[in-house]
Amino acid sequence: MEACFVIRLPASQHHDIFSGRPHHVSGMAPTKIKNCALHEGEFGKKGSIVIWDYVHGIFLYTIHQKIIFICIS
């Protein structure tokens, strides 16, 4: 999935939202991301499965994202 939208946040907050609270992204880009829900595991944990509902053109799509690697530096 690829989308372009501007998020004006410091890098640390950007990482925090996408890794630990991805369900907040739908509030930041409601025309592109319709929903983000946890299917299995915990947000920000290896092995978790997150379901994304997003709009591309006029169509609504759903994808399942499995977290396979987390880089903490």
From TrEMBL:
Pfam families: Bet_v_1. Residues 8-58 form the Bet v I/Major latex protein domain. One of its GO terms (biological process) is defense response. Transmembrane segments: none annotated. InterPro entries: Bet_v_I/MLP (IPR000916), MLP-like_ligand-binding (IPR051761), START-like_dom_sf (IPR023393). It comes from the Eukaryota. SUPFAM superfamilies: Bet v1-like. This is Bet v I/Major latex protein domain-containing protein. It comes from Linum tenue.
